[in-house]
Amino acid sequence: MIVLGVESSCDETAVALVENGRKIISNVVSSQEKLHAQYFGVVPELASRAHLENINYVFEKALRGAGFGVEPGELKKVGAISVTAGPGLMGSLLLGWTFARTAAYIYGKPLVPVNHLEGHIFSAMLENMELKPPFLALVVSGGHTELALVYGYGRYKVLGRTRDDAAGEAFDKVAKLLGLTYPGGPVIEKLAREGNPTGVNFTRPYMWENWDFSFSGIKTAAVYFVRDREKAILKNNNLKKDICASFQSAVVDTLVDKTLSAAKKFRMGKVVVCGGVAANGFLRENFIKKGGDLGIEVFIPSRGLCTDNAAMIASVGYYKLKMGKNSIAGLDNRYPNPNLEIKNW
Ligand code: KG4
Ligand code: ZN
What we know:
Elements: E1 2-7, E2 12-19, E3 23-31, H1 33-37, H2 44-65, E4 78-86, H3 90-107, E5 111-115, H4 116-123, E6 135-140, E7 145-152, E8 155-161, H5 167-177, H6 184-192, H7 216-228, H8 230-235, H9 237-265, E9 270-274, H10 281-293, E10 297-299, H11 303-306, H12 311-322
Helix pairs in contact: 2-3, 4-12, 5-6, 5-7, 5-9, 6-9, 9-10
Zinc ion (ZN) binds next to α4.
């Protein structure tokens, strides 16, 4: 069965068609990065307006990419529509939700609400046919840092999450501090390649007493470091590169070491790393290398499936439907929910 997925939780408007939960037939993502870059972060009001402007185009492009048109008869092979129901920005979620609900009504398809974080968790399965739960998942994005044991579709135990900034948010804030562009992750990664990762001593916030994360300390350390050397940084581009490399290295060490420790503790031989920050090359290399040393297999989606997309939403929608879960027809006031948690279903 083909499921059409709709994603609009933050600043990407996305529609995808996926067959039997695994095979991507069409995957269209329209990013608003340029729109928000001047504000160094996503402006919710602008994001919802941009979703409204883009959604029809993205929907039609995704259908055409799969060889279908937009007339009702053309969607015979589409068995259901799934849509991100949260977490995310309320205005953005509402746009995709209303669009998907209207489409489900017009085309006569069941509507399946999907948790955005579940989408990220299972995005690795779109490219790894052999990958099956149980595994440990680390979701690292602009809004989330969550560590969860995944026993199956709809069966999770959240071990920890960030107590303050999400990992991606810390990248974005440090980039802003250094006068770089938004989103911060890719530009910090680029400069870090030419910097010295031991140039600045940032303490790794391991907090070994639990499985939570905290990145605001590293961010504050970066603020003080930059404040005390503002002129030197302006003159010396190498210092900027060292800050990027050292910051990236501190965040990556924390994420990798803590996640792999949890995998050992809970005897998980497989780890999935997903979300926008998983696009970071240094993080990917470290996870694969350190995981390999411990005999832990690490699965990371290709970069395009790390950042927000609708293929992951269509995939989870298929499995939810197959398990007889959460197909809704009419109004449902539980969704969208900007604070939706990963829960068992
Ligand atoms: O998953 P995502 O596309 O959107 C959310 O659901 O938040 O993640 C976006 C986040 C941004 O904070 C961005 O700076 C970060 O992912 N990111 C990266 C890289 N590419 C994107 N962080 C570090 N290195 C990267 N290469
Ligand atoms: Zn995301």
